[in-house]
Design brief:
0% strand; 11 helices
């Protein structure tokens, strides 16, 4: 089977980073990613159906890693699109309640359908002894009382358990997305905060923090640029106990504001140079 499996995830991440920086809304980003991933999955399926696998190891790797990551992201972005298009326009308490309800429903789904299953424990433990059973074609055991969607999958392109891994991945991605939409101050149980960081908070403007986040992102300063704006934003929101809401709109306003577009970064540079020039600096 000759297709660029090793490059697939890199291409997905590249497009995610591009859209994360360019799109002005979650709806636009989620819609474009959904269309892209659906077409990618179709292309990969055509390749697999045409050429098959070179051996069982490649087959297991495909159904355990490659396909679930594509499908998981597809499920996630489609979920985000549905959530965002049904979200109340109001950005206050009604908006926060909506996202809280979505997170509660997601958590309930996770508890009922994922975390207590034997397969979930197998997958999370990193075991490989049953990979041949779970991630190769033609081994679906209908006597186990599987979920009804098994009858809708293509048995020539699914082992059933590849879909379960995709759901685990999608669930975690959607959880991270929802936590970024919730105000940390109003939802302390959602965004974990520790006693030792209780006095750690942001004292500049929210726009200043957004400017800093985008600067770090643009410079590939975090994880060699492999982490997107949303994840970086999540870390800063939790660390500094601040809600940034939709950072894209704020960033696009910065691009067109009068005067310096990097007001906070200019201020940082000036403050640091002034500090360096002090006689009592170590």
């Amino acid at each position: 089977m000759r297709h660029p499996l090793n490059n697939i995830m890199a291409e997905i991440q590249k497009l995610e980073r591009k859209l994360s920086a360019e799109t002005s809304s979650f709806i636009d980003e989620a819609c474009r990613m959904t269309i892209y991933l659906q077409e990618l999955l179709r292309t990969v399926k055509d390749d697999v159906m045409r050429e098959g696998f070179s051996g069982i190891d490649e087959e297991i790797y495909f159904f355990k890693v490659i396909k679930p990551n594509i499908l998981g992201k597809l499920i996630h972005y489609n979920k985000v699109y549905r959530i965002e298009t049904a979200c109340p326009v109001d950005s206050g308490d009604l908006n926060q309640s909506y996202y809280a309800l979505q997170l509660k429903a997601l958590t309930q789904e996770y508890r009922v359908h994922i975390c207590y299953s034997a397969f979930y424990r197998y997958y999370r433990s990193g075991r490989t002894d049953r990979d041949g059973e779970y991630f190769t074609l033609g081994n679906i055991n209908y006597y186990d009382g599987l979920n009804s969607y098994v009858f809708e999958i293509d048995p020539n392109f699914s082992t059933y358990f590849d879909y379960k891994v995709a759901k685990i991945i999608a669930n975690e991605l959607t959880y991270n997305y929802l936590t970024t939409k919730l105000n940390p101050d109003q939802n302390p149980d959602v965004l974990l905060q520790h006693e030792e960081t209780k006095d750690f908070f942001w004292t500049q403007t929210k726009n200043a923090l957004i400017e800093l986040i985008y600067a770090l992102y643009a410079n590939d300063a975090i994880s060699h640029g492999k982490i997107g704006i949303r994840k970086i934003s999540t870390v800063f929101q939790v660390l500094f106990r601040v809600s940034l809401n939709d950072i894209h709109n704020s960033f696009h306003r910065m691009k067109t504001r009068a005067g310096s577009r990097t007001l906070f970064l200019d201020q940082l540079k000036f403050s640091l140079e002034e500090y360096m020039d002090r006689d009592d600096t170590l």
